[in-house]
Amino acid sequence: MTPVLLGQLLGVAFACGLNLYITVAALGILSRLGLIDGLPAGLRGLEGLIVIGSALALYLIEAVIDKVRHADSLWDTVHTFIRPPAAALLAVGALWAEPLEWKIGGAAFAFVVALAAHATKAGFRVALNTGTRRWQPAWISLGEDVAAVAFAVAALEAPATALVAGGLALTLIVLFGHGLFRAFALGIRALAAWLRALFGPPRWREADELPRDLHALLDRAPLGAAAPRGARAGVNGVPGVGAYRNGWLVITPRGPIFFYRTLLGVRSAALPAATSIEVDRGVWADLVRVSADGGDYTLYLLKDGPAANIAIQDFHPASP
User: Which domain holds residue 80?
Assistant: First the structure.
């Protein structure tokens, strides 16, 4: 695969990961007006008025949702199953005249690049939405749209620039994006939990319902004490655990413990005793902001678990 073709695939895939609809609309409009070099034969369909109109309509819907706190994270989570596959399909179209192995390789490459860009964007939104500071989603949304169009145009007009810029962006994502990837995974888990809650009552999971690899770290409950019970959750700010870590909140006779997986196996962390608790009921998860002597942290209770007020009673009985 030549550097020019690689730059084209990288630029368009990265743009799709940021905003699929504005990317498709921009490529179709600019090519139709002759403002950029002609699209590959397999992508000429993007110049059609129906395609352009549909992309613009979906972009306008996204532009509204993108500016609503928490709704934007739900939108991003759903589009995990849309943006990367769409980037792969565009890569196949761009390589339509090439051998089959080129199409497969290009589709896989575009999928991974779009997923990396999308995961970083979605994780960044989760981090902003769950932070204590208010932010202006309009400016973030506009910046993402401008970046998407810039990458798409550069892919066709200056493939070398797209290759360098995309390569630099991917390098930064790999080196510094771990926390944002976990925030992105938290959004996926939250959507799955929300769907589970539609078909069954939200509740604690008993000890035998927890993942099997957690059982080895669970202490046997003393005689007469309540058995451990847990719920899917995430944490941010707990010392030594890592940003936006996904796992299980388990209530034990020794207090609340957070269990999570790493490459080295399952780990546990006793959550610091709370001095005060603030609850923010969210669309996709309930946020429990805990002030503790060891530092403040945030607990994310997913929707298939107990309601926040019930979790608080078990988590910190002294709280009102």
Answer: 3-176
Q: Which residues contact 27 (CB under 8 A, 6 or more apart)?
A: 12, 36, 39, 43, 46, 152, 156
Q: Identify the band that residue 227 occupies on the pLDDT scale cut at 50, 70 and 90.
A: confident
- In this structure, the answer to whether residues 218 and 274 fall within a common structural domain is yes
Q: Do 288 and 228 share a structural domain?
A: yes
Q: Of all helices (H) and strands (E), which one includes residue 257?
A: strand 255-262
For 239, the 3-state DSSP assignment is coil
CATH of residue 268's domain is 2.30.29
Nearest CA to 283 out of 221, 194, 166 is that of 194
Q: From CA 13, how far away is CA 117, in angstroms rounded?
A: 9
Helix (H, G, I), strand (E, B) or coil at 306: coil
Pair (136, 226) in one structural domain: no
239-291: pLDDT as tens digits: 899 899 999 999 988 889 999 999 889 999 998 888 888 998 887 889 999 88
pLDDT band at 3; cut points 50, 70, 90: confident
DSSP state for residue 286 in the 8-state scheme: E
- 129, 157, 176 - which closes a domain: 176
Residues 166 and 21 in one domain: yes
DSSP string, 25-81: HHHHHHHHTTSSPPPPGGGGGGGSHHHHHHHHHHHHHHHHHTTSTTHHHHHHHHGGG
- Residue range 39-50: mean pLDDT, rounded: 92
- Residue 185 counted as domain residue: no
Q: What share of the chain is helix, strand, coil (3-state, %, to 5)?
A: 60, 15, 25
Indicate if 163 and 245 belong to the same structural domain.
no
